[in-house]
Amino acid sequence: MKTRRGSRRFTNYMRKSKLYTGGGDKGMTSLIGGYRVPKTHPRLEAYGTIDELNAFLGLLITETDDRATQDLLHLIQSKLFDAGAYLATDPSRMGHKIESRITDDSIKRIEEAIDRTESGLPEMKSFVLPGGTRAVALAHVCRTICRRAERAIFRLSETEEVEGNLLVFINRLSDLLFVIARRECVLKKGEEIFWNNSCT
Questions:
Q1: C-alpha angle 164-161-168 in degrees, rounded to nearest 5
Q2: Could you report the per-residue pLDDT of 80-117, keeping only the tens digit for each?
Q3: Among candidate residues 51, 149, 32, the one with its CA nearest the CA of residue 91
Q4: Which CATH number characterizes residue 87's domain?
Q5: C-alpha closest to that of 170 among 55, 68, 62, 46
């Protein structure tokens, strides 16, 4: 089988590379471009939380039987990978404009998915508690991690330039995960658990 020269070089690089380098043993790590920062840097908190969210979305995908939801979440995982790469790059060190690849169309697609998913759900008359089925609970876990990622990115934006579209996308994603949780409950014929405000 013929392979392109670039592909062979990449394969050889992967064969020679080591997973561990020892470079981060003293609390420093490299951003894209090679610039080193402390592992406590807000930029790492931002893209690390995006990575965590992406991992939990992978788990959610294995728990839902709905193909449309699986396909949508796979697309979102790719977008989050783009977002993570963007956040892992300090534009002031690159000498050229860095883009997140989160476009207006990316946001529109999330909003359309929210509207489409929500249209088939029963009216919500009280706050919903996480749980009911494993998929529902996982969707809520993803939602809360998404909110934490949003806070981390906003925190980064206080000192660094961050694209507005990325912040909007993450905000809409948490809303989408909420309606996915509700839809999973309907699909699995589970009963939503409502907040009991009379508990003492």
A1: 15
A2: 999 998 998 876 655 556 677 899 999 999 999 999 99
A3: 32
A4: 1.20.1200.10
A5: 46
3-state DSSP assignment of residue 107? helix
pLDDT (tens digit per residue) in 141-167: 999 999 999 999 999 999 988 999 999
Does 176 map to a domain? yes
| Interatomic CA distance for residues 93 and 101, integer angstroms | 19
58 belongs to a structural domain: yes
Task: Write out the two tokens for 154.
Answer: 């906003």
SS3 199: coil
For residue 2, is it within any domain? Answer: no
| Structure token pair of residue 106 | 């990316």
In sequence order, the 6+-apart residues with CB closer than 8 A to the CB of 3 are: 11
pTM of the model: 0.80
The total number of structural domains in the chain stands at 1
Please give the Cα distance from 164 to 84 (Å, whole number).
15
Measured CA angle at 166 (ends 162, 171), to 5 deg: 120
Q: Which residue segment(s) compose the domain that 83 sits in?
A: 32-190
Q: Is 178 part of any domain? A: yes
